[in-house]
Amino acid sequence: MDFIKDSKDALNAIEDKVEKSWEVAKDKLGNIVSYLPFANMAKHSPNTIDIEIDLPGVKKEDISLTVEDNVLTLSATRKMKHEAKEEDYYLCESSFGLISRSFVIPNNIDKDKINAQYEDGILYITFEKEESKKARNISIK
């Protein structure tokens, strides 16, 4: 029995299993991420923070926004169906599912003044800063 050869073989087997596990994990996480809506920090002014969230194929009535503590949660149901009927074939592809994303709201945001507008597959959210926490100029005397 060759201890060094057996150790190398065991190490190689472990390394192969780790690499295969990593490939499976990347594939599974890629599927999960494909259902997350993309969010872009659109503007940041002294008084507001604006975020744009891409929700293609989602109807306005299928979107829900909730605020609890300092977390804004977006939930939406995506229902997409594509059909093609031709003389010699029929194709039907569909994608249905719940998508959700949560954002931590900074402490300086007035939770009563969060506005949302949905247009052309994009959800625009404006966070207004609390009056007392807005940037202001201070005069020097």
Shape: flat
Helix and strand composition category: alpha+beta
Average pLDDT number: 81
Q: Could you name the ranges where pLDDT drops below 50 across 5 or more consecutive residues?
A: none
Strand count, sense and barrel status of the largest sheet are: 4 strands, antiparallel
Major sheet: arrangement of strands? 1-2-7-6
User: How big is the Rg?
Assistant: 25 Å
Gap between N and C termini, in Å? Answer: 88 Å
Q: Helix fraction?
A: 10-25%
Q: Tell me the total number of β-strands.
A: 7
User: What is the string of helix and strand elements?
Assistant: HEEEEEEE
Q: Compute the number of helices.
A: 1
Our estimate of the beta-strand percent is over 45%
